[in-house]
Amino acid sequence: MDHRPLTGQKALVTGANSGIGEGVARALAAAGADVVVNYVSAPDAAARVVRDLEASRVAAMALRADVGREDEVRAMFEKMLSAWGTIDILVCNAGLQRDAPLTTMTLADWDLVLRVNLTGMFLCAREAAREMIRRGIRPEVSHAAGKIICMSSVHELIPWAGHVNYAASKGGVRLFMQSLAQELAPHRIRVNSIAPGAIQTPINRAAWETPEALVSLLGLIPYGRIGLPEDVGKAAVWLASDDSDYVHGHTLFVDGGMTLYPEFARGG
Ligand code: NAD
Fold first, then answer.
1. 201 Cβ below 6 A of ligand 1
2. Residue at 3 is within a domain
3. Which of 56, 75, 94, 205 is most buried when burial is the number of CB atoms within 10 A of its CB?
4. Is residue 2 part of a domain?
5. Of the residues 40, 98, 117, 203, which should be mutated to test ligand 1's pocket, given the most ligand atoms within 8 Å of the CB?
6. How far apart are CA 76 and CA 15, in angstroms?
7. Residue 5 in domain
8. What's the CA-to-centroid distance between 136 and ligand 1, angstroms?
């Protein structure tokens, strides 16, 4: 059976020309969704992802926008809505790190991380929710009027010295998502987060690119392997599909057990 649970749905994935966003875009397309591949740099990588998605017999297009800029986010949604008519699935994935100890962290490092990881989510979710509320449920494609998925992190829970800007942004994502879920439930818009653990992407290359770094990383992962973008892609398809229709305001940890306090496995 050709099981394509997202057939006919229109999706937008931010930061979809690399890493987890690319993995999510590929998984949504394989599940039948048409996908906008948002990017801010590396247009060639975005074009490559679009070509690959089209091989899944769906529509795909690349749209450039800095998710931290209101005018660019607005313009991106206007282009998507005029081309495809509506949006059913938003995955707020774009994110970055600018790591430094507190005493040397610049205000620019703090502002950029909060702007992309948290404000970017607000700007994109606001545009998507406006359209989902205007349109309402399309019963031919989904029980819900829309699905919003926030890419959080295990660091919405685990404090992270040397990364106070990043941890604060992801801690903010947690209550942003939950508050949005409370607010949008009457409109039948489902809002959830995915909290990845260590997924092999460019953002954390230093943590896996040498054998020594990988051994040290694996000490934090009870399941004993690093995660892959497709692990997150599969979770996103489930959260976007009616298979999770009663799941709302939830953070799904996709982390190989990283949040299980692995050091306590050997005593405590
Ligand atoms: P990545 O660096 O491969 O991808 C990040 C993407 O975001 C890129 O496409 C980048 O261009 C885009 N981006 C950055 N700033 C942007 C902006 N202003 N506007 C639009 N796009 C922008 O890293 P990744 O690991 O794939 O990270 C994706 C998300 O997953 C991030 O939110 C990150 O915090 C989260 N995450 C990653 C891991 C991990 O282990 N890789 C773990 C937990 C959470």
1. yes
2. no
3. 94
4. no
5. 203
6. 13
7. no
8. 30
